[in-house]
Every structure is written in structure tokens, then in C-alpha cells.
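Board notes, transcribed. Complex of a protein with flavin mononucleotide.
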Amino acid sequence: KSDDFVASIKEELAKNDMTDKVNVVRTGCFGLCAQGPIVIVYPDGVFYHQVKPKDAKKIVSQHLIKGEYVEKLLYHDHKTKEVVNKLMDTPFYHKQKRVALDNCGRIDPEKISDYIAFDGYQALAKVVNDYSADDVIKILETSGLRGRGGGGFPTFRKWSFAKASVSDQKYVICNADEGDPGAFMDRSVLEGNPHAVLEAMAIAGYTIGANQGYIYVRAEYPTAVERLEIAIEQARALGLLGKDIFGTGFDFDIDLRLGAGAFVCGEETALLESIEGRRGEPRPKPPFPAVKGLFGQPTIVNNVETYANVPKIILEGPEWFASMGTEKSKGTKVFALGGKIENTGLVEIPLGTTLREIVEDIGGGVPDGKQFKAAQTGGPSGGCIPIEHYDIPIDYDNLIEIGSMMGSGGLIVMDEGNCMVDIAKFFLEFTVEESCGKCVPCRIGTKRLLEILDKITMGKATLEDLDKMEELCDHIKGNSLCGLGQTAPNPVLSTLRYFRDEYVAHVVDKR
Ligand code: FMN
């Protein structure tokens, strides 16, 4: 859709002899997907939403030539019905704070000069010229940055373990596998701000003593792959990757490795197997990758969003980052907001924002006057948050306490019409399909679990089946080899915890 609009506006500009007067810049995602494609006209900064190729003519003839806004393409707030001219003035952005997504929608991701114009590669320059590896680790510790890929492991700790591992060869890996259904946070960062990830990986290389990085990105993300390829080439051409970076003697380069789209390959040890050319199956831990990772060498694996925060932390200072968030969850988190919500899209919130604020203020509420029922976070590994926890500040620990988890950032809203047993079944079907089959509890246990869920939804189960299901969940969680199986029962357990009545409504022997 955006491609068609770009072609059409270029045509209109050419017809009006304005090609050299107006620059058409394709950016990454603005976040407000429900209103896309979005066009912002500068210098006014006015935005038009849901544009179609045929709208290009009016934008050129009316706005660019006569200086009059195109009324019918302006955005009206769906609650107040008032026109909002600037994208960042829409209620969707009021409670957001863009750190990882900062440049997305602002720069041309295919031009390194755009990234540099917004302080790009200054963090790397500062690190390699002024900081020791220990300084960087200390900065990360003070910032409180935790891994955004799901587990929330403190980033400084992982980097310091890898730094402490003695070896001539170490690796820095970016996990851009992003296999959760409904998740597109990492894709948006890579498509909109690829250099931030490259810069952070180079900083990681300097810190742990690695000279080679790999980005493991799924092949189903062709735009992300293409923009990464362009970004790597441009960074190499300016000497920001490769040999003797900033004349300091520090060498670091990055290559891409494409994944074939298996969810389990996002699990860090399965990812290492896949890069090594083997079937993507997890390895037992320990040893952890920071000690024995890729090709047996010390390796750090971090998520795209984790890296995207690093240059900002270096430049703005760790205290700035730590000033956002809750006591143990600092900074911001990007969520892919979907389901029964007015403003589907990509949102970045300071941690500690409540679910109510995300759904009502940012998301614009549940459509068609329906009631919010629950939100699912963490995808197939996560759980649901019912309305009684609507005001819970979102952070790593709070979510775990109520039986869900942050996960990588999928946030799916359900309304009164959704059956929670169906939701649990949807996620379980996904994990059954994606289980690699290496360990028995996951390979067979999740299948048996799904059979019981099937029996329940067909109205053939008994209360005893519910007990069996809970027991089986415990076994799968406790005995699976990797995080896939260890978390697969979560959607079932959390829906059982908060919506047991819906399960009971399906069974035949209601006591
Ligand atoms: N982490 C990601 O960053 N991206 C993924 O797509 C991803 N998929 C995963 C899939 C499974 C089944 C499991 C168990 C874990 C997955 N993880 C994923 C978590 C990684 O194993 C690892 O913890 C993460 O990449 C570490 O980076 P972080 O510390 O920056 O979060």
C-alpha cells in the first residue's frame, strides 16, 4: 500500500515539475498501524492518514502547491471527534516514550547520514575512545537494562560473564528471530532504525572482546533483511564496521544469518545450533552461551530491542534511562498491540504504565462499546491479565506474579465475546506445531494437553480432566529441556486461574 502511494506521489511531483523541490522519504513504522499508510508533510508537520494512491494528486495540488490542508485526509480523534494535525499530538502517543523506536518514522533507514544526523555512531565513538570495557558494564548496570527478548536477564551481567570468559574468539549475536504470533516489535526496529542495532553490537563487541557479530533474522522479514544489508554495507564503507574502527585498533564486523521461521530457533541455544548449520534444537544449559556458545566460544545473545536501547543509554546516561520504569524494571518496553482494540499498532511505554492506560488511553479502548475482558501478554509463553489486574503497573516481576510474563512484547486484547478456553487452545496449537521434538515432555506432553483441551471444547470432558490437565501442565513445565516447553502450559494455567468458570461451563459433570 505504501509503495503504491510513493509511486503515485512521485508521479504527481514529476507532473508538476517539483521533483527537485520535494523530497519523498520512506521511513520505518510510525506505530499507529491502524491509521496507516501515514504521510507527514514537512515543514508543517501535518499528517494524513489512511492515504490511497489517488490521494497523492490532492496532497500535491492542494497542500504542496496552494498550502491548504486536505481536509478529508486529516485525522479526527475518535473520542473527541476533533482534528489532530500532528501525529505526536494524537492521544495514541501521549503516554508513550520512544527510546528503542526513537528514529522509527523519523529517518530514512536506508541512509546512514540520516542516522548520523541524529547522533548515530556517537555512542560507539565515545565508548571506543573514552571508556574501558568495565566502564560500559558499569553504565549498563546503573541503567538497569534487562533483556527485552522475554527473560528479562540483566544485560550487564550477561556481558560481564562473556567478558570474563577467556578466549581468542568471542561472538556477539543479535536475536531477530521474533516468532511469537502477533509480535512485530523487532521487525519494526530493524526496518526503521537498523544502525542502532549495528552500533550497539559493535559496543558489545568492544566490551566483551569479540570481533565478529551475527544477526539471526527470519527470512520472512525481507524488508528488514534488505535494510540490514544496506546498513552493514554503509557502515563498512564509512569504517564504522570492519578493521581499526575510529583508528583505535578495534576490529568488529557483522554478518547476517537467515532463519527459516521456526519458533524454537529464537531460543538462544537452538539459534546457535542453527547458525552452526545444524537442526535448530536447544542445548542443555549450563554451559550458558556466555561461557560456551557459538562454535564452542563465549557468545552473547541479545534481543533486537535490548540492543536498540544501548546507544541511547551511553549518550543520554544510565541515570536518564533508570529514571524511567519501576524499581526493578527500568526504561521502556515496546509492545505490539492487537486484538480487540481501536488503535492496533506498535507502542513504547515507560515500564510501570498500567494495562488500563495502554488499553484505554493509548489503544483508544475496546471497539463497538464492548467490555474489556483480558489481555494476553508474552504470546505462547505468557498468560492473560484479567480485568481485576487492569491497574497493575506493567513490569517483569508484576506480570510473573499474576501468572503472565512480559515475553517479547505481544499484547493481545480480548473483549467479552472471547472464549478464554479458545484462546488457550490457540496458543497451545501453536506450541504443539512448533515443538522441536527433542524432549519428551514437550513433544508428547503438549500434544496430550491439547487433546484434553479439544475434549473440553467439544463438551466431552469431565472435571477430572481439568485436574489431569493441571497435573500435566506441572510435568511439562518442570521437565522440558528449554523455555518453549517450560512455558507452553502458561496460557492454559493462567486462563484456568482466572476463568475456571469458563472451563467448567464446557464440562459434562458440573458438580
Ligand atoms: N528472544 C528473542 O530475542 N527473540 C526471539 O524470537 C526469541 N524466541 C524465543 C523462543 C523460545 C521458544 C524461547 C524459549 C526463547 C526465545 N527467546 C527469544 C529468548 C532467547 O532464548 C534469549 O533469552 C534472548 O534472545 C536473550 O536476549 P535478551 O537478554 O536481550 O532478552
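The mean pLDDT is 96. The pocket of flavin mononucleotide is lined by residues 147-151, 153, 175, 177-179, 263-264, 266-268, 301-303, 306, 408, 482-484 (CB under 6 Å).
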